[in-house]
Amino acid sequence: MIIFAVWNFIPNISLPCLIAKVAVQTIFVIVLGTAAIRFSLWQRDEYGRERGRDPKHPERFPKDRRNDGRQ
Fold first, then answer.
1. 4: which residues sit within 8 A by CB, 6+ positions away?
2. Are 14 and 7 a contacting pair, CB within 8 Å?
3. Would the pTM count as exceeding 0.85?
């Protein structure tokens, strides 16, 4: 991130360097986005495990049965 911040202040970057910069930034966005999604899904699964739910089968709620006959 620091490298990209410094890279943005360099004036008159040549076209090959600009293309390389955009390519590397695109890869970083994909990697960081994937990491954020995986972390979010991991938190969701942990939240379900704390309540006794199976994250692989979320339709099964052993502790959340309703008393009015509906499930």
1. 21, 25
2. no
3. no
Closest residue by Cα to residue 4 from 27, 29, 21: 21
Q: Are 55 and 44 in contact (CB under 8 A)?
A: yes
Q: Token digits for 49?
A: 């495990």
Residue 43, amino acid: Q
Q: Is 21 exposed, middle or buried (0-12, 13-18, 19+ CB in 10 A)?
A: middle
- Identity of residue 60: R
CA distance 48 to 44: 6
Q: What is the pLDDT of residue 68?
A: 46
Q: How crowded is the C-beta side of 67, counted as CA atoms within 13 Å? A: 0
Q: Which pLDDT value is given to residue 12?
A: 84
Helices (H) and strands (E) in the chain, counts: 2, 0
